[in-house]
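Standup notes
- HV: blocked on the assembly model, inputs below
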Amino acid sequence: MVPGKTTLPMMPLGRGARRKNSQLPRRSRRQPAETGRRFLDLRSGEVDIKHPKVRHETVLPVRAPNLTMQYPQVQINHHYARLWTGHDFYPQFPSFATCSKELKECSGHVFVDSVPEFCLPETELIDLSTVDVILISNYHCMMALPYITEHTGFTGTVYATEPTVQIGRLLMEELVNFIERVPKAQSASLWKNKDIQRLLPSPLKDAVEVSTWRRCYTMQEVNSALSKIQLVGYSQKIELFGAVQVTPLSSGYALGSSNWIIQSHYEKVSYVSGSSLLTTHPQPMDQTSLKNSDVLVLTGLTQIPTANPDGMVGEFCSNLALTVRNGGNVLVPCYPSGVIYDLLECLYQYIDSAGLSSIPFYFISPVANSSLEFSQIFAEWLCHNKQSKVYLPEPPFPHAELIQTNKLKHYPSIHGDFSNDFRQPCVVFTGHPSLRFGDVVHFMELWGKSSLNTVIFTEPDFSYLEALAPYQPLAMKCIYCPIDTRLNFIQVSKLLKEVQPLHVVCPEQYTQPPPAQSHRMDLMIDCQPPPMSYRRAEVLALPFKRRYEKIEIMPELADSLVPMEIKPGISLATVSAVLHTKDNKHVLQPPPRPAQPTSGKKRKRVSDDVPDCQVLKPLLSGSIPVEQFVQTLEKHGFSDIKVEDTAKGHIVLLQEAETLIQIEEDSTHIICDNDEMLRVRLRDLVLKFLQKF
Amino acid sequence: MDPECARLLPALCAVLADPSQAVADDTCLEKLLDWFKTVTEAGSSLLLLQENPCLVDLLTHVLDLKPQNVSPRVLSFSLCLAGTFAAQEDCFEYLQQGQLLLGLFGEAGPLSWAAWSVPIVRSGWIRGLRSLAQHPSALHFLGDSGAVDALFSLQGDSSLFVASAASQLLVHILALSMQGKAAGSSSLQGSAWPACAQKIVDHVEACLCSTAAPQVTQALNVLTTTFGRCHNPWTEVLWGQLGPLVAHLLENEPIPAAHSLVDLLLSVARSGPRDMAVGGSSSPVFASADCGLWETTARMLSCLSPSQAGPLALGTLKLQNCPQALRSQAFGVLLQPLVCILRATAQAPGPPGVLDETTEGSSMTVDTLLSSKSACVGLLCQTLAHLEELQPLPQRPLHWPQTLLVEAAVIILKLCEGSVAPSSSEGGRLCGALAGCVRVQRAALDFLGTLSQGATSQELMLQVFAVLLETLESPASSPTVLKKAFQATLRWLLDSSLPPSSLDLGLPAPLFLKELFPVLQKRLCSPCWEVRDSALEFLTHLTACWGGEADFREVLLASEVPKLTWQLLRDPESYVRASAVTAMGRLSSQGLQAASESSGHLEVQQGLVGELLHILSVDSEGFPRRAVARVFTEWLRDSHADVARDTEWFVATVLPMVSRDLDWEVRAQGLELVQVFLAQTLGQSSPHCPYVVTLPKASPPSPLPEVLRTLCQLQVFDFAFRALFDCDRPVAQKACDLLLFLKDKTAPCSGLQEPGESSDVTSVEATLQRWQAGEQGQPLSTLEPKEVLAALRSMDLEGLQSRLAESSDHVEKSPQSLLQDVLATVAVLEENVADCY
């Protein structure tokens, strides 16, 4: 290994190249990520509770799954010297001689040679130390958690389901393992100088916030971060400081993946992210509980809306079979959990029909064994079919049988047992899908020179063209079958029709067709009313106001109330009580009895503490019919009465008495000069038309 | 009526009249009605009633019993039965004497009963009336009894069956009352309609003037049926009277009952040509140019919405005697959606002549296409289906815009694929509506397939092949779309031009084949069995047509396709295995089977025969085994090299397998194989038609005794005799035909037999009798030719053939059996009741 000569391209996280055709522009995963950073500020509200005993600022950073939290940006990551076939960059660009050791060129592309670095979540918009709660939607969304919990002063609670935590741990463990397995001394930093960076070719010059990029975390940090997570189950109601209640719901995308309902007594916000309506292994998406939402925040839709997952699985199988039949090997760069379970299940049904029973399938990952075993024990998080298998009892996933029959073999790495068992032609599933680190690099090296072999990309997170760039020229066939089971726009439209939220909030990108396919009007969210969209780093006021707050009445106080029916079915009562507020809970308690006026001094002190419960004037209700009121006035001897209509009601003019009675919807004013008797008479006449209680 | 039925009839009537004995099955009653109808059609109903008084008793009894005590089924049955009897005028009079008919069909009858709320009773009432309305007396009865008024209200009945029957009965009554008037149409010019007809016409008129859409629909339905059925001079008068009212409906916005209006206009228009054909004179309705039909149709075409106008346009184009201008307008309506699509996607929209005719109303079409996804999809599917239907008809317009249609189909498919990027906003919205729409894709592929027969420029043909290839290649294509795409591709490949080898290299087909085969390869590996199956079917058809062409052979053999097809013989899905068998059979016939790297041609071929024999003997599903049997028969018929090498070995190996197969189709196919073998060894059976030209036989058949011996050794007779008593009739029929053929061929030999040898036949006959009795396990001793000849001669094969030709339920279908069934069902029900206590 010669570190000085190992370079791979910087990967500005090109999630989701859409089509096989390299000429077609794509919408990268990062675009929604950039604009998807939002937090819901649930502090605001119309009811202002004056003196809460405990004050919590509940800021929930509810992140879009495609934020930097989810996928650390892989900046530079390569550690295998034998892979490098390029040469130093500076001869072509003499002005960059200062950072020549960092920049390398290969097949017309410029790369940075450095230890891998990752882009951190946004920290300027919000001080993470003030965040109380983080909700994790699925295991792909938690890759940056150690950066937050360990380095920002965060002291809050993290909520996630058990499979999310366990599989998230596996993903992080694999990442750390891949990075630590091949240590590299220094990071490249000179190229980050803005004056140099802007002169570099794309995509280097377009990389954002490069100065904030950090090296990968350690296992210790991962363990510490995970220890801060509190486990929750679907439909479990979690009280947050009395202010809101949050509930995870199955989102159908991955084992333990969740959508969240965040609700108070009178408002309901649904956060839908990374959901799937397809029948795959996880429990189906819970749509019913999303109904009656005031606001539905929608994000994490499919990266490749034009690729139907079923069709892609078909492509995957056909290409795999064709390659193997011709004596070639198939390499599938993938994550150790998720779609791989479905792929193995498809292959389980397919290999016999395709006559591939004798072909070995290898799954190589430091966490391969744990991943395969974990999938079999999370029965309650699986779809119904798989759940029912557990009672037979049978393993829910058929990969158990593949392992048992030696058709699928798994290894922690290419070293050790694998090298003894390795037989070709074969199919290898291994990471990392970016092709920048992990055992996949070895196989690219090993099989890249032969056109008999095929690499099949199934993960939608990375542009396969960028992933392959440093391996060029490459003889092996490349097939792009991105399998993204998350909601597409047709499914979103059905979902919204079913759930009928009052408002939809989504990233701006979802409200217009992708720039590369501006004619595809079907590739955008179409709903009524039109969705509210947001951009990167934009703080959004959700379109509802908190008008009501629930207040409890103590039973003894309720007993003392005497309701009076003012309309059929509607009764009112006046209440005199003390409002007690603690932890955002409000309780009306009976007022203390007024103390006996034994001494003036004492009484004064009591009246300081307790509101004055003197007899109140009765409350009035009802409306004054003007015509009848005028008739009554005439009956009582008033004459020369004139009625004028105003915008808010009427003015009754008693010209003789020089008096004005202003009747409006919620008030009546009698305006007369210095004739108290007249005013009282008129007041009594007005009161006759109103109810008192 | 035969005496046995007459004997059973009183018991049957008693059962029906007894409210405590429920008849479980409706179909029995329907069969009874059918039988009574046959009986009354064959003889006098009056006589029948007089000879079987139980029938009148049944009707009287039903009427006497309080209707709530009679089951609605029996009530309905009785009404229909009474109508059937009263269809003959003397019987009608007979029943009327007892006021029976008035009781059953009059206003005081069922209309006032509680059972009237049951639809089956209302339906029975209408059917009864429909049966009896055959003569003038019935007409008077209908007028006096108030039945016509009841029918008016039943037109809006909640049961669609009742409403439709009521409407049809009104038409029947109208036609019946006009029956005598047909000759003197001039007398109708005034207001000289018979009373009953006048009443109906007045009602229809009133309904046409109504503002309520259901009433208008009812009136239009009556008229549609009238013009559909009656082609007499009075219908012209009727149209002259009501035509203006119909035309007036077009002035409303929106047009009420548009679909019914379209049906009516087409019905009126169609009533013409048929008359012309029959009478040789111009149709009554079209006799006068001012009848207004064409004007009304033209107005309707221009003011109906595109989706409503489509069926009218198609119907108009199918008419034979339609003015050219109207035909052009109608064709324009059909083309409009496609022209709009081409315009929106900025394609050249065909020759200017077509465009001019379609500009009118195109904005409405565009609005429909863009209004919503479902409207767009609906209109396009309808248009494509209409054009597809029109394409092969002789009435299709002379100037068939082949180029425009092909371009439109191509662009629609591209829109569905999402692979076209129109610049206009309309194009963008169309793309949004059609992207990924499987329904439109299927319709467009079907349509494109039918267009293959027209002359298409080479440039356009390239576009067609490109879009078909794109569809076949796309991972998003669903299995049904792929199937259609394969079918369309096949049609274009086969119809577009001459076979590939006779083409210049520059022409599309051979180039296309080179691109097609990698796709076909991929589809043969699809995890979806429907796709593998469609791909195999495509391969089979293509090989059948082009198997002998050098270019095709070269491309095929250079690909993995033959190898993959072989592998699919072991597919887990039986349909795929069956298709793979057929495909391999075809490939092998053409010498295109996979050449294995390690083995030579012969080994491969023997391997294939072995593989197919393996499937025939062990496959658990019927389809692959049937396919193997068919392939073997074809191979034998075509003298496939591997079969011809040792035909007897081949037949000897196959026969034991097919004869024991559980699937009757395999056994039948096995007999077919034997038939082919016999034809080859004994010569063809004499042709039924004396003018059939037969080729001279290449080699004279072997001497008969020798052949017979061979057949005995191959156990052909064992198989044929067993099959003669097969529980599946088609197998037995085939075996019978086969043995008759043998009997015919061996007739010259029969004289050779000596009289004393008949004892051997006894044992054969005994075995055959046991087989007939179902003891198929009984083995047949090794047959000698002489025994066979004797057995063939002694068997009544001709008699057996005619018995087998009768349907298997001919015994059970007799009326006697029906009556016994009804009685037996009741008896069983009674027993069950008794058991309960």
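- HV (later): unblocked. Chain A touches chain B through 32 residues (CB under 8 Å). The mean pLDDT of chain A is 80.
- Next: hand off to the docking folks.
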